[in-house]
Amino acid sequence: MAMLNRVHLNGLRAVETVARLGSLATAAAELNVSVSAVSQQIKRTEMQLGQTLFERTPGGLVLTEFGVVFTARLSAGFRELAQAVALADETSQCMLVVSVAPAFASKWLLPRLSRHFARHPNVLLRIDASVRLADLDHSDIDIAIRLGDGKWPGGRAELLLAQEVFPVCAPSIAARLKSVQDLAQTCAITDERSMISWDRWFEAAGVEPVTFLKGARFTDPMLCLESAIAGHGVMLAWQLLTADALADGRLVAPFGVRAESGLGYWMVTSATKDESRKVRDFKAWIREEIAATMAQFSALDSAA
């Protein structure tokens, strides 16, 4: 391998291209350089090798006996290099990078990913768990799922699901809640970073706001959820955060009233890049999963 240090790759590429195409002019066109540049690279390579590769004849360059053997191996080497680069490109094309908030990833997306793997086995999925919307034009992120109002400069946003908020609690606490006024005897579990408030829900329920007992406060919605499941009080939650816990009975939505928060889950992609097939497939898959989740909510509403 050390012998390669004395020979420039560009020169070897020029030699291989001329040998394969048969002339300086066609090689220069493929390499996007001038004819004189190709000629100089060949001369420099011959000097570095200490061997003549081409005979200069009135009809053009003709490979020497050594040149025939040398360029045959050189062409095989460049084919291997091309295949290696193609492999890297293929891996990149098959990698789908999805940026999502940790709570969305943990409580809703991850339990459903096996169905995406089964449907698209050739797509390698990488989850970038972050609450920050990355620069989609200058990163490897293909699509982001974000909770907000859909206004992200430089992004193309499509609404996935309008967020609705509602109280949830453990079944043991729900059993004590006969009316909304009973919330006054219940601790509120608070997410200090939440963009939603109880006022919207009380308005949708058509009742005056209730003052809760002071309860646990967290800076992460996943911790709020676990606190509610543990029976520490009532939290103001939303569909995708609580879907599975409501479905399996760990949580109950005691009043059957959901209020629009004015926010939503949005699929955000670069406004300047064409969407790839893998992104379009992911969008179609996640819409199906959202529809299935909301069907669960409809069934719970009917049961209530």
UniProtKB/TrEMBL annotation:
Species annotation: Mesorhizobium helmanticense
Keywords from the named record: DNA-binding, Transcription, Transcription regulation
Domain HTH lysR-type positions: 7-64
CDD domains cross-referenced by the UniProt entry: PBP2_GcdR_TrpI_HvrB_AmpR_like
A Pfam family: LysR_substrate
PROSITE patterns according to UniProt: HTH_LYSR (PS50931)
Any one of the GO BP annotations: DNA-templated transcription
Highest taxon in the source lineage: Bacteria
Name the UniProt record assigns to this protein: LysR family transcriptional regulator
GO molecular function per UniProt: DNA-binding transcription factor activity; sequence-specific DNA binding
Organismal lineage: Bacteria, Pseudomonadati, Pseudomonadota, Alphaproteobacteria, Hyphomicrobiales
Entry similarity comment: Belongs to the LysR transcriptional regulatory family.
Spans through the membrane: none
